[in-house]
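STRUCTURE:
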């Protein structure tokens, strides 16, 4: 295809001298075509989620005393900027900046870190994907999909999942999927901070019916006595629309009893909605906490849903787990029954 400038030059050679207006017009058209071609090779998208709920809690102490709490909370609301540029040959550059905020107050979450959910830049290649920045560890990548609540809302498993989900100053690798298998690895630099050096490994297999995930994390010098080691094994089985899911996580700290969390759950489509349920059990020595959750999520559209759920959490004298850290902090041995009604909108 002959460019507008080349056309103008051809006309001049033929003896018809173009007017200045025509030359300016040709340059403008050529610049527009060039910019359009450049934009076709790369893109930036803005997406996110806004979620808020009304929560009612009844908290009971081991002495028999009780108290209640009613409030508005926000969970997993976020604003995401993502970009990708095609470099050719199966290579592309990419970035992701994920800002977490509380819609009930407008405040930034994650202790004020603006892109506290995730901040990375990387390369996707035929040999896998490489990321640098604040990354999710492989254990979080592979555990979150096994939670029927996908780590969100009153049923989210992450408050009892016992591992650190995101690591600063880290390099991450995700292999191509080959025959259903995929591997992940992460390593972080401590930058002189004790306990900030991590190594994470993960492997998964997925097909139309079954997902099997395993992950390992080692945190160097997490305690004065030595390194912390964590292991996860889990999976799900899909039959038609419903699925059954579960995982087991254990943490080994030197000189301390092993700590573990186990989950079984289900997602069950019903009409224009989905029933979600899970049961978690956490143990460390004689300490024990258990939680049962049931929720119905109704999809008003592809982007908007409303939900209602109820949860019961029991702590013995060794634990003070809570339904969600955004909700009131419990003391050891306190139990809580909570109900939640909310709205979620993704964009």
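SEQUENCE:
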């Amino acid at each position: 295809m002959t460019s507008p400038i080349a056309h103008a030059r051809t006309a001049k050679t033929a003896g018809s001298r173009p007017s200045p207006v025509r030359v300016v017009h040709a340059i403008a058209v050529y610049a527009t075509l060039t910019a359009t071609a450049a934009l076709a090779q790369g893109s930036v998208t803005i997406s996110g989620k806004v979620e808020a709920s009304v929560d009612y809690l009844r908290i009971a102490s081991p002495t028999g005393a009780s108290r209640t709490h009613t409030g508005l909370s926000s969970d997993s609301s976020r604003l995401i900027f993502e970009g990708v540029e095609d470099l050719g040959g199966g290579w592309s550059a990419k970035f992701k900046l994920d800002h977490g905020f509380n819609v009930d107050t407008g405040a930034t979450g994650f202790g004020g870190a603006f892109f506290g959910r995730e901040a990375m830049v990387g390369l996707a290649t035929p040999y896998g994907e490489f990321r640098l920045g604040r990354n999710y560890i492989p254990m979080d990548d592979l555990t979150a999909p096994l939670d029927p609540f996908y780590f969100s809302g009153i049923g989210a498993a992450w408050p009892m999942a016992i591992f650190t989900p995101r690591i600063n100053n880290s390099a991450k690798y995700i292999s191509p999927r080959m025959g259903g298998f995929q591997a992940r690895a992460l390593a972080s630099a401590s930058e002189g901070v004790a306990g900030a050096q991590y190594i994470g490994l993960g492997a998964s297999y997925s097909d139309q019916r079954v997902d099997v995930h395993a992950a390992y994390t080692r945190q160097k010098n997490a305690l004065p006595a030595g390194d912390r080691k964590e292991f996860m094994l889990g999976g799900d089985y899909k039959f038609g629309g419903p699925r059954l899911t579960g995982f087991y996580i254990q943490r080994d700290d030197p000189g301390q009893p092993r700590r573990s969390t186990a989950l079984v759950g289900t997602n069950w489509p019903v009409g224009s909605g989905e029933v979600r349920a899970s049961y978690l059990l956490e143990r460390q020595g004689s300490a024990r906490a258990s939680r049962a959750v049931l929720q119905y999520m109704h999809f008003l559209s592809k982007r908007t849903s409303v939900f209602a759920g109820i949860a019961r959490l029991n702590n013995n004298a060794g634990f003070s787990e809570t339904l969600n850290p955004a909700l009131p902090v419990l003391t050891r041995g306190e139990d809580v029954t909570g109900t939640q009604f909310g709205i979620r909108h993704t964009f």
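REMARK: The chain has a mean pLDDT of 89.
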